Amino acid sequence: MSVYVHKSHNVSILLYHLVFPAKYRRAVLDRSVDEEVCKVCLEIEKRYEVKFLEIGSDIDHMHFLVQSVPKNSVTQLVTLIKSLTARWVLVRCPDVKKQLWGGEFWSDGYFASTVSKHGDEATIANYVSSQGKDGYEKLHEDRQLKLF
User: DSSP secondary structure string, 98-147?
Assistant: First the structure.
């Protein structure tokens, strides 16, 4: 479960949904690989300001629900998680290295999305508009021009 992270000058709750595909979309994620990835992720939690709320696996990609602090960008999180998990999986599961022809474990790409503890975009917009006393005024709204 996510918690508010209290630092000296800020309080945050930053949640990210990350999806990493295996290299070549190969079906290399079996039970032993999943266990190794989980072990490495729990070690990452001890050393970095990252909390893994959920880890899920399919045969060719993995899902991570991660909480972090504002100083870590999404790119830094992805690089940290991918590099450490790949390094240890290739060392501890030599059969995976054979299946991937001795190369990389993760594909170069990834999917990242922010997750809200309090709801979707419309819920947050309603919350913001209901704050304040009498005179809430919307100063900016992003509107996409429609071509058709």
Answer: HHTTTS-SB-S--EEEEE-SS--HHHHHHHHHH-SSS---------PPP-
- Residue of 71, 74, 34, 75 lying closest to 55 (CA atoms): 34
Domains of the chain, first to last: 5-116 (3.30.70.1290)
pLDDT along the chain (148 residues), means of 10: 76 84 74 84 91 82 86 92 87 76 81 77 63 54 62
In whole angstroms, what separates CA 20 from the centre of its chain? 9
Q: What is the DSSP letter of 3?
A: -
Instruction: Name, in order, each residue with C-beta under 8 angstroms of 10's C-beta and a sequence gap of 6 or more.
Output: 70
